[in-house]
Specification:
alpha+beta; two-stranded antiparallel ribbon; 35% strand; globular
């Protein structure tokens, strides 16, 4: 199951994570699937851009498909 610990481990290589929150998820039985959303908070914008660039060509990381967007553009 995707949770805060799993997300932190998967995205830590892209930069320093300050916080990670999985807000909502649902599980389906057939086929087994988890859907939901979460937020990653990095210490700097460069780390966030590293994630965006890495997942642009292939949004799958460790068998899980992600749809990543910046929540706020820098001023």
């Amino acid at each position: 199951m995707i949770n805060e610990i799993y997300m932190a481990q998967m995205f830590a290589p892209f930069g320093k994570l300050v916080d990670c929150v999985v807000k909502q998820h649902a599980l389906t039985i057939d086929p087994p699937k988890q859907c939901g959303y979460g937020f990653l908070y990095f210490s700097d914008m460069e780390s966030a851009h590293n994630v965006m660039q890495a997942l642009a060509a292939d949004p799958t990381l460790n068998g899980v498909k992600y749809d990543c967007k910046l929540s706020n553009a820098p001023p």
